[in-house]
Design goal:
single chain; mainly alpha; 9 helices
C-alpha cells in the first residue's frame, strides 16, 4: 500500500536514476529500461491512479501529470514510457467525471488546460467529452500563474515541472 509521501520519495529516487544515465537519447532509454527504472515508474503511475480511484485528488493530479509528460517528453529524460493503457483510460475517466459535474478543484482547472495547450491530443478522447470541452474552453484564459496556495515541494515530477516554469 502506497501513500502520497512514499510515492513522492520513489519519484525522487527514480528522478535521480534518470539523471545518472549518460549517452545518447537511445542509450539512456535503453539503460533506463534495462535497469528497471521505466517499469518502476509505470508502477508509480499505477499506484497514483489506484489512490485517485479512492477519491484522492492529489494522486489524480500527479498521475495526470505523469501521463501527460509521458506523451510529450522522451523517456530518456523522464523514464516514463508505454504506461498501461487501461490505467491511462481509467485516469482520463476521473477528471472527465469531475468536469461533467463541474467539480474540478482550482489546481486541476489551472493544470489541465496547460497540458492541453502543449499536447492537444492528450485529452482529446471520445470517452472524455466534458474534459475535452473544458480544456478547449479554458485555453484562452490559461495562465502560468498557479493558484495562490500551490505547493511544488514533495510532489514528484509534477512539482519539478511547475517549479521550472517562471510565473507571468
Amino acid at each position: 500500500m502506497s501513500t502520497l509521501d512514499l510515492l513522492a520519495i520513489e519519484e525522487h529516487r527514480l528522478h535521480e536514476a534518470v539523471k545518472a544515465v549518460y549517452g545518447s537519447i537511445e542509450e539512456k532509454a535503453l539503460q533506463l529500461h534495462r535497469d528497471g527504472v521505466i517499469e518502476m515508474y509505470r508502477e508509480v503511475h499505477r499506484e497514483y491512479v489506484r489512490l485517485a480511484r479512492t477519491g484522492n485528488v492529489e494522486a489524480m493530479r500527479r498521475a495526470a501529470h505523469l501521463q501527460w509528460i509521458a506523451s510529450v517528453e522522451p523517456s530518456a529524460f523522464t523514464a516514463l514510457y508505454n504506461l498501461d493503457p487501461a490505467v491511462c483510460e481509467e485516469l482520463v475517466a476521473l477528471p472527465q467525471q469531475m468536469c461533467a459535474r463541474d467539480q474540478l478543484d482550482p489546481e486541476l482547472r489551472w493544470m489541465l488546460p496547460h497540458y492541453t495547450f502543449l499536447a492537444a491530443w492528450w485529452f482529446e478522447a471520445a470517452s472524455a467529452p466534458a474534459l475535452t470541452s473544458f480544456c478547449r474552453k479554458h485555453l484562452a484564459e490559461m495562465s502560468a500563474r498557479p493558484p495562490l496556495d500551490f505547493v511544488v515541494d514533495g510532489r514528484g515530477q509534477l512539482g519539478r515541472h511547475w517549479a521550472s516554469i517562471p510565473a507571468r
